[in-house]
Amino acid sequence: AAALDQSRSTVEPAIDTTAADAGVETTLGVTIDHPVETYTWNFPDRTVTTETPAVTHTFETVGDTPVTVEFEDTGGAVFSETYEVAVDAPEPTAAITASATDDVEVGVDTITLDASGATDPNEIVEYQWAVNGDRVSNTTDPTTDVTFNDVGTQTVSVTVENIYGATDTATTDVTVENTIPPTAALTTDQETATYLVGESVVLNASATTDNHEIETYQFAVGDGTTVNTSEPVLTHTYTETGAYTPTVTAVDTGGNEDATSLSLSVHDPEITVTEPSDRFVGTDTVPLEYVLSET
């Protein structure tokens, strides 16, 4: 309380505003049951004199801030009171939209996430983007592009941060699908694709491509043998001569598939006698030297 000589009375002025947001223009007022001619407001960064019991001010620093008001009454008496104003960091309001939320192809389609609808009384300084809670990028711009590596409902989010470090988060869901079939490929370990009976044949489908992931390679080697495997390479031995058409069907995680095949031949080796070169007749035992070769 303060004693005023002019009125010989005791008054207790009260401030009407005890909280404010940093960076936001705030109106402060005082209530006093006494005739006052001027009010001088002393803020940490400026001093303002008014003839009314109210003033507007923008606090720039977060925390409890002292404000001293000097009252001068109509008789020239002056006294002051100091008040604490709790200055908080204002919170932004996040917003997010996606250029597409359905029928987004995994590993192929790129969509744009847009947070330009986010608001803040001051300034947003960073946008933190995440997919299913995993951070993918930080930007100072309100948009970013993203391609998805997983199928199903993907929750994308943006966390906006203002100059005071206050944050807010907004989310939206994107449905990601896998509808594109793979492109199957198949080669052998020999360019001529010609093998001997009993020789190992390597069938290689590792050049197969897909926008997501191959789940199964279904090999049908052409002699009645079929093998389903997660590995793209199969080694097989043919036990009979003939022409074969091995096939591989690549099936991805979405159940999409593609098949391709190649041709190869399997034969017995050719025997060529190299020694002796003369013809023998009779029952004598003759040593033979020979060479096995492919035909």
Give the end-to-end Cα distance, rounded to a whole number of Å: 117 Å
Q: How large a portion of the residues is in β-strands, by DSSP E? A: over 45%
What does the overall shape look like? rod-shaped
Q: What is the string of SSEs from the N terminus onward?
A: EEEEEEEEEEEEEEEEEEEEEEEEEEEEEE
Rg measurement, Å: 43 Å
Count of extended strands:
30
- Low-pLDDT runs: 1-8
- The helix content, as a percent range, equals under 10%
Main sheet specs: 5 strands, mixed
Count of helix runs: 0
Overall mean pLDDT = 91
Q: For the largest beta sheet, what order do the strands appear in spatially? A: 4-10-9-6-7
Secondary structure elements and pairings:
Layout: E1 2-4, E2 9-11, E3 14-15, E4 19-21, E5 25-31, E6 36-43, E7 46-50, E8 54-58, E9 63-73, E10 78-88, E11 97-98, E12 104-105, E13 110-114, E14 124-131, E15 134-139, E16 143-147, E17 152-162, E18 167-177, E19 187-188, E20 194-196, E21 200-204, E22 214-220, E23 226-229, E24 233-237, E25 242-244, E26 247-252, E27 257-261, E28 264-267, E29 270-275, E30 289-293
Parallel strand pairs: 4-10, 12-18, 20-28
Antiparallel strand pairs: 1-2, 3-5, 5-8, 6-7, 6-9, 9-10, 11-13, 13-16, 14-15, 14-17, 17-18, 19-21, 21-24, 22-23, 22-26, 25-28, 26-27, 29-30
Description:
Strand 1 and strand 2 form a beta hairpin. The chain has no helices and 30 strands. With 295 residues, it is an all-beta fold. A 5-stranded mixed beta sheet has the order 4-10-9-6-7, with no helix packed on it. Strands 12-18-17-14-15 form a 5-stranded mixed beta sheet, with no helix packed on it. The termini are far apart. The chain is 0% helix and 55% strand.
